[in-house]
Every structure is written in C-alpha cells, then in structure tokens.
Amino acid sequence: MHDLSPKSIAGVDVIPLCDAVGPMGESLRKPLDETFPGASPTVWEHLCAHAPEAYGLQGEWVLHFHCFLLRIPSGPTVLVDTGLGGTDSPASSWAPVPGGLGDVLASAGVAATDVDVVVLTHLHSDHASGAVQEGMPAFPNARYVVQRRELDWLRGKVHDPVNERIVRPLREAGSLDAAEGRKTLADHVELVPTPGHTPGHQSVVVDDHRLVVSGDVVLHPVHLADEMATYVYDENPGAAAITRAELLRRIRERDGLLAAPHLPSPFVRP
Question: In this protein, which residues make up the domain named Metallo-beta-lactamase (predicted)?
C-alpha cells in the first residue's frame, strides 16, 4: 500500500490526489522496451521483480494519474495539473476516464472555488483535461499558469483538441497566465522550466529541490533505474534525458522527494 499522506516541506503541505489508475489505450500502447528505449534487459528484469505495481496482468504499463495540491501558509492554494477530466475530455481517446479529481479534492476539504492557482506542467491531455468543464474554467477563481513556450508550441499543433477545448476557453475567460521561464509562486515555491518531454514543460520546486512536483520529467520506475532511458512520446528525448538527470541530481543533493504523477507511489526518494 502506497503512502498517500501529505508531505510538509518548509511549511508547505503537498497533498497527492489520485485521479485515476490504468493502462494506456491500445492506440498508444507499446511494449515497454519500445516505450522506453535504451534501458538494458537487466534493468527491466529488476523492475519486474521490484516494481510489480507498475505492470498489468499482460505486462503492460499501468499508469497512476496523480495531481498535487499545495497548501501554502499565508499564500495561495495551488493545484498542480488537473488530470483526465470526464468521458468526453481530450484524454478520453487513450486514458482511463473519467478522472476522480473533484471527489478527491472534496475529500481533502477543498472546493473548486478555493483554488487560487492552477499550474499546468504541460499541455498533454492527461494533465490538462480537467482544467475546463462544460466550456468554462473548472476552477473559476484560479489563474492558470502555463509556460509561454508551451502555448506557442501547442498553437502549431492545429488538430490537438487541447488547443480548442482547454486553452481557448481559458484564454477567452481571461484565466490564462503565460509564464516566461522561472516564476515564484510563494515563499519556498517556484516554477522552473524542465523542457524535453514538451518544449515548455515546467515543474514545481519546493524549498530548493527538497520536493519537486516533476510532471512528466520522470514517467516510469525505469527512469529512476536508468535516467538516460528515453521515452517514445517525448518531443525531444535527448533534451528530456538531460533535464531528468539534472533534476534528479539536484533532488538527491537535497535528500529531497520526487512527486511524479505517473509513478505508483506519489512520493519517492530518488
């Protein structure tokens, strides 16, 4: 059983919110050695024995879809990523929808109107689809923070439904903030660009890497065993591997925690 209890770092409470658990749909699913090329057979053998919760009955990758809530003393209530959304969301073509983010937020005593800032680590559908409900911002009092580089990249993907169904409603509602690189959210809480998986990917750093909500910098336990193993759906696999190695190095130097959305446990010490 994984520890789902909050972590407190420099007075900031970080609460994991499990939105869903399940494999990718058949349209995107590949054998794991093709999904994460470069890792040795020895690494895969080790993971099968020591991380069985990441595998389904047929050996497929079972993803956990975690979002994270940050409660900051005398600061904003911050939600990092918004999960899968409903059965009609952009994620519904490949992910185990509907997500249960609203229910787990309510269990944590947080209403949608209580959220002050929504950080979207990147604009893939499993991280952004819960940002909008029925064409309106799902968190009506929040500013939605995305890197400008991410918005510019997605604008070029004209057929991506996240553009039309997530970004456009947020922009029209006046809720979207385009960040330019590093950005301080509160004392001890900072947004840091972590590009590679997507061009404008960002992570949330608490107390100088004592805890990092990493988005998709780390996707699978294989990235902890071999941080240079690439991922078939990275926009720039080489840059993603360099970013991952540097981020994990800094977390280890601080004896910190990694909060990675798709790992079986929401918090790990890399």
Answer: 64-262
* 24 falls within a domain: yes
pLDDT tens readout for residues 119-152: 999 999 999 999 999 999 999 999 999 999 999 9
pLDDT in tens, 181-226: 999 999 999 999 999 999 999 999 999 999 999 999 999 999 999 9
Q: Does residue 57 lie in a domain region? A: yes
Q: How far apart are CA 183 and CA 163, in angstroms?
A: 23
pLDDT band at 159 (very low <50, low <70, confident <90, very high): confident
Residue 81, both tokens: 């990523």
CA pair distance 245, 239, nearest whole angstrom:
10
**At residue 177, what is the residue type?**
D
Span 72-108, pLDDT tens digits: 998 999 999 999 999 999 999 999 999 999 999 999 9
Q: Is residue 1 part of a domain?
A: no
Can you say how many angstroms the Cα of residue 240 is from the centroid of all Cα atoms in its chain? Answer: 14
Alpha helices in the chain (DSSP H): 32-35, 41-50, 101-107, 125-128, 148-155, 161-162, 168-172, 222-225, 237-253
Q: Annotate 61-90 with DSSP letters as a single string.
A: BEEEEEEEEEE-TTS-EEEE-----STTSG
Report the 3 state secondary structure along 150-173.
HHHHHHCCCCCHHHHHHHHHHHHC
Residue with tokens 């080790």, as numbered in its chain? 46
The amino acid occupying position 17 is L
- The dihedral built from the CA positions of residue 215, 217, 219 and 225, taken in this order, carries a sign that is negative
Which residues form the domain of 94?
7-268
What CATH number corresponds to the domain at position 140?
A: 3.60.15.10
Question: Is there a domain that residue 2 lies in?
Answer: no
